Amino acid sequence: MAEVKLVHLIKDFGKVQILKGIDLTIPDGEFVVLLGPSGCGKTTTLRLIAGLEEVTEGEIFIGDRKVNNLPPKQRDIAMVFQSYALYPHMTVYDNMAFGLKLRRVQREEIDQKVKATAEMMELTPYLKRKPRELSGGQRQRVAVGRAIVRNPQVFLMDEPLSNLDAKLRVQMRVELSKLHQKLKVTTIYVTHDQMEAMTLGNLIVIMNQGIIQQMGTPGKVYDYPANKFVAGFIGSPPMNFFPAFIDGEEEPFFQMASFRLPVPAQHREVMRGYAGKEVAFGIRPEDITVDQTDSEGRIPVKAKVEVLEMLGAEIFLYLSSPEEAFVADSASEKATSDRYLKLRANPAHSFIARVDPKSPAKEGDIVEVRFNLEKSHAFDGESEEAIY
Amino acid sequence: MSVTTQPAAACAAPRKKPASVRFREHMRRNRLAYILLLPAILVIAIVVIYPFFYAFNLAFTNTNMYNINSPDKTPQYNAGANFTEIFSDPQFYVILGRTVLWTVINVVCHVSLGMGLAILLNRNLKIRALYRTLLVLPWAIPQVIVAMMWRNEFNTQYGSVNLILQSIGLPAVSWLTNPFWAFVAVCIVNIWLGIPFMMIIILGGLQSISPEYYEAAQLDGATAWQQFRRITIPFLKPVLTPAIVLGTVWTFNNLNIIYLITQGGPNNGTQILVTYVYRAAFDYYRYGYSAAFSVIIFLILLVFCLFYIRATRGAGEVT
Amino acid sequence: MAGFFSRARGDSPFKRILIHLLLIFACLVAIYPVLRVLTVSLRPGGSVFSMDLSMIPADATLENYTQILFQSDFWNWLKNSLIVSLSTALVSLILAAPAGYAFSRFKFVGKQPGLVFLLVTQLFPATMLLLPLYIMLIKLSLINTFLGLVFCYMSISLPFSIWILKGYFDTIPIDLEEAAWIDGSTPMGAFFRVILPLSTPALSITALFSFMTAWSEYIIARIVLQNQGLFTWPLGTVTLQGAYYTNWGPFSAAALLISIPVVVLFMATSRYLVSGLTLGAVKG
Lengths: 388, 319, 284
Prior knowledge:
The complex is a heterotrimer.
Chain A (H helix, E strand, L loop, with lengths): L3 E10 L2 E11 L4 E5 L6 H9 L6 E6 L2 E2 L10 E4 L11 H11 L4 H14 L15 H13 L5 E5 L7 H18 L2 E6 L2 H7 L2 E6 L2 E6 L1 H6 L4 H6 L6 E8 L5 E3 L4 E3 L5 H5 L5 E6 L4 E3 L9 E11 L4 E7 L16 H8 L3 E7 L10 E6 L5 E4 L8
Parallel strand pairs in A: 3-8, 3-9, 6-7, 7-8
Antiparallel strand pairs in A: 1-2, 1-4, 4-5, 9-10, 11-12, 11-14, 12-13, 14-20, 15-19, 16-17, 16-19, 17-18
Chain B lengths: L6 H4 L8 H41 L5 H4 L12 H8 L1 H32 L6 H13 L2 H11 L6 H8 L11 H29 L3 H9 L4 H29 L3 H6 L11 H10 L4 H28 L5
Chain C lengths: L12 H29 L21 H9 L2 H32 L5 H10 L5 H14 L6 H25 L4 H9 L3 H12 L1 H16 L3 H6 L8 H9 L6 H36 L1
Helix pairs in contact in C: 1-12, 2-12, 3-6, 3-9, 3-11, 5-6, 6-9, 6-12, 7-8, 9-12, 11-12
C-alpha cells in the first residue's frame, strides 16, 4: 500500500496534448475515481501510472519511489482492464498464478494464495476452466482476482464494469466496495459513469480536456461544484442552467430571459460585484417544486410541461418557460439594455424538475414552479467558475 | 482548481527534443523490435534482397554458363545490350501479347465461373459441404500432378479428352502438337485449376453479406440483377480486389502448368514470358539476358499493380 | 428469379433441381481427371494404352502400386521431400514469428517500406530470384544439397509467412501483453509466454503452408538438385513418367499415393489460408 503522487504530468501524442499538467496526490488506502467524458485524459492518466505509456513531462511517485522510468513490472501495481485481458489459453487458476510465477514465488505459496483469492472471489468451482467457458460476471471476477492475488501496492481499474449488463454492474459495484473496505489498498478507478463514481469513490477526481476540474468527496463535488462543467457532469438528470445577468443595486437579482429571481441573502455581497455581468444561474432538478402552496414565500414561475417521464419513485418533468407567459416588469428601463435584448433573443428555455410521483401535473399543463434558491448556484459567465 | 485554461499547460506545446535524445528514446522503446526482426532480416537479405539487386546487376552483363566460372573469359557489362536485344526482338511482343491474353482469359474465367459456383453454393443445401469439398479438389492437388495428369488426358490417341469428344461424334483434336490447340489446352488446365481459389474467396465474401440487405431490396422491388449489381458486387469488392490482383500476378507468373505440359511448345506456340525466360536461363544458360528479361517482367507487373490500386482507390471505395 | 443471387430460402423445386444439376456437373468436371488417374493406376502393365473410358477397368490390379512401393526410389523421394519440406517449414516459422510480431506491434525504421517490400516479392517472376540464387549456390558449392534447396524455398515462404503471421497478431488485442507486463513479464516474456502459446493455430497453419509449398515444388528443385539420389518426389515422379515414353501406370499410382495426404491436409486448412490472405491483403 502506498500513496500515489502525480506532479505536473503532461502527455503528448504527436502534436496533441492529452494531459495538460495533472497535479494529484492520492492518499494511501483511498479509493479514488477518475471521472470524465471520453477523451478527457482519465485513461491516459491511469496508463501513465501503470507504465504502459511514457511520460512526456512531470513526475509520478508510488510510495517514495519515482517510477517515471520503471517498467510496469517494477511498479508493484495491478490493473483490471476494460476488456479484462484474461489470457485465453490459460485456466482461471493459471491466469491468477501467472504474475506470482513470474515473480518466482514458491509453488506451495502460489497455490495457497490463488486458492484463498478464488475463495474470496467465489471462483473456486471454476479454477480449471478457460476464460471463454465463463460468463461475463465470472470473467470480471477473475480479472479482479488476478489483480488482488499479488497483493500489490496500488490497484488500477480501467472501466472494469462497463462490459457488464446493468444489473450485474450494480452488484459488482457493491462487491468492489466491500473488497476495498477489506483490503484497504490504494485504488485508482477510471469511469465515465458518474453513478459508479459517486457510489464507489471516497474521492472523485473530475477531469475534462486533460485538466483536473475538481477533486473532492462525492458529497462535496455534488453540493459545491467548482465550475459549470462539474455541475453539469455530476448528477442525473443534470443541473439546469439559465443564462442571466445580475441587476439591482442593494438587493441583486438574476435577470433571466423571461423572469427574475432574487439572489439569496447570504450571497448578496459577492453577487454585487457581478452587477451588470453575465452569469449562469444553476439549479438541480430536485430543487424545483411544482404546484405547491406557497411555502417560505418562494416566487412562482409559470412553465409548460412538455414531457412527463414516470420513473415510479419519482417523476421527471421536462418544462419550458414560454415567452408570452410572463414578461414580468418589462417596463423597467433595463429592458433596453443590450444584454437584456440578447437574453430575449432566445427566451424559451427548457429545464427539468424532479418531483413527487403524486404530483398532479400532466403533459401540456401550465404549472407554477418554485426554485429553492438556498440550493441554487451561480457561475461566472466567462470563466464558468463557480461564484457560489 | 482552474477551469478552462491553465497558463502553464496552454503554452506547453510539444517541444522538439534533440535528435540524439529522440534516437535513444526510440531505441529504448523499440529495441525488442530490432532484436525480433534481426534473424528474419538477415535471411531475407541473403535469399531475397541480395539476389534482387544481383538480378538487376546481372541484367546489364553478358553473363552465361560459359563465361561465369571460366578463368580466361569473364562476364562484361554490355551497356544494356540485353534490353536492346529483347525490345528489338519481334518475338518478345508476340510472347508479351500471348501472356496478356493468357492472363485475361484465365482471370476472367476464374472470377466469373468462381462467382457462379459461389452463388450456387451460397444457400441452404444439405450436401453443401460435399459439393464444396469436391469443387476445391483441383486446388488441393499438387500442381506437378495436375499438369502431368492433364498432359496424359490430352494425349491425342489415348487421352480421355479426345475419347469423350469422339464418343459424342466430334473429331479428335491434336491437342499438344498444334500450337493453337496446345494454347487452348493449357488454358483449360489453368482455368480448371484456378476456379476453386476464387470460388472460396467469393463464397466467404457472400456469406458475410447480411440477408437483410436482400430482404430490404426485395421489399423495394429490386430485380435479381439489380440486387446482384447494387448489393452483391459492392459488398464483394473488398475481398474481390485483392483476390483479382493476386490472381492476375499468379497467372501472369505461372510457370508450372505451361512448362510441365508443353514446355512452351510446340514451336513456341504456348510460350509466355516466364516460361520463355525460364528456358532461356536454365535450358540455354543465358544468364544476363534472362536477368534482364526477369526485370522487365517484374516492372510490367509493378506498373500494373500501381495502376490497378490507383484505379480502384479512385473509384471511391468505402473503407 | 427473385433472390437468385441471394441466399434463397424458398427456392422452387424446379430451381433447386437446376442448381443441383449445375453443381453436380461442376463437381464431375472437378474430379473427373482425378478419377481417371485412379483408373489408369489400376490398369495392368499391358493395357496402359487403352481406349477404355470405364472407371474401374475390368482387369483391375494393384500391380502398379506394388511396383512403385517396392521397385522404385519412391521411399527415398519421400524421405528427401520430408527433409526439405520440414526444414523449410520449421526455419520459416522460427524466423517469421518474431518478425511478424515486430511488424504487428512496434514502430521501427523502415516498417512501412518493409511491409510493401514483402508484398512486392509476390510480383517477382520465378526466375527473378531463382537465377541469382542458382549462381550463388554454384559459387558456394551448395548445388545438389538440401541446404541449397531450402535456401531457395525460404525466399518464397519467409515473406509469405511474415505477412500471414503479422495479420494474425494484429487481431490479438494489445491488452493481453499489457496485462502480462503488469503481471511482471518483460516485453520479450509477454511474446513467448502469452502471444506465442495463444497463436498455436495460426503458427501451425503457417508452418503447414510453408511445408506444402516446398512439398509440391518442382521448378526450383529441378534446377538445384541434379543428383538422382537427392530427388524429391515431384522430380522423381516426373522422371517416372519420362519425357517421351509415357509410363502412365506407375506414375498414376505414385501421384495418387503422394497426393492423398496433401489433399486431406489442404482441405482441412484451406479456409484459414484464404482468411489469412484476404486479411493481410485488405489491410495492406
